[in-house]
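Is iron/sulfur cluster placement plausible here? Inputs below.
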Amino acid sequence: MEQNALKLPADFETYGQARQAGFLRMKELKEKGARVVGTFCSFVPTELIYAAGALPVGLCAFTEEPIPAAEAVLPRNLCPLIKASYGFALTDTCPYFYFSDLVIGETTCDGKKKMFELMDEIKDTYVMQLPHRRDERALAFWREEIIALQHKLEDFYGITITEADIRDAIRRKNRERQVMRQYMELGRLDPAPLSGYEMGTRVDAGSFSFDLEQRCAEIEARTAEVMADWEANYKGRPTDRPRLLVTGCPNAGVRDKIIKTVEELGADVVAFDTCNGIREKVEPVDESESDVYTALARKYLNINCSVMSPNESRRTYLGQMIDDYRVDGVIEIILQSCHTFDVESHLIRRYVTEEKGIPYLGIETDYSQSDKGQIGTRLAAFLETIDK
Ligand code: SF4
Ligand code: SF4
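Reply from A.M.:
I modeled the complex. Tokens:
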């Protein structure tokens, strides 16, 4: 049987549908008095938000509609994720932003940290100061920032967060990481058991299911279903579809024009080294560490995002993924004007082509559809270069 990597399950929801479906659930939760905290980045330790009895909700925007409004304030040559996120806030058109009691930002990239100053004029936006290196001084500083966030949440809600609250949240989040990781590691199977389009969509859509346990149960059920389907229908039946790894910026806003397109052209996206992929899931918080703040600080400082400098560990982990997922080629997605990923892409290209000896394609793009045809042509040409 020839594998159809784009076979989607009957209950599959697109990211837009899942986002929409979450609005009503969020409204009902708010009416029952739920605390809601908006975030924009994997570096924000959501354990503290759960420990405060609140629900974290991701506010990164992946659609071009709010961008023109944002461009009346922000420069045009700014990352579309930043413009779209600010545009939603400015036009009050994102229910998740509307329902957030406060926003937790972070000093990751320059565009985002300066945008938070403007966002603070619309809604209380607390910014964590992220150090950009990984040494003992940075660890001590980041630990203090995590404690400061705890105090902010306590003051804001008039509550006390205990160590037991934090340890409980760490356990729950570690379980979620493990479940998501097992799901994404399905991509190690050869032939690929499901499309990367489905995998990425489902992981992103999970953030709109606010009950952590329910989210885990749904992903576990899908993992078991995919595994059974693979055993029955695909195992031991080789395919000539190239196996690709996607790295770089968050890709939800360009998933259709890149990931869906390349899979329609005959490849399988089997691995994601992105912050909406496995990047934040690889390392759990160490539950045996006696100091919870050190445990949280160490885990979050180790996230392999290009905002960190130096960031060699991203290449080390990328190399391991290329081997573990038996990857034939790498596509790096760079959102326009994302300087950290754009500059680091030189090192990634060199590492992938020279040290791992496989083809690399870098695509710089934004949320518009104007380059869709050109991207399709480049993806088709890239697949021609893969020796499979
Ligand atoms: S790419 Fe880096 S800075 Fe941007 S949201 Fe992800 S972890 Fe945060
Ligand atoms: S994609 Fe790059 S520029 Fe955009 S918010 Fe993330 S780190 Fe910043």
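Short version: Residues 48 and 150 are 6 Å apart (CA to CA).
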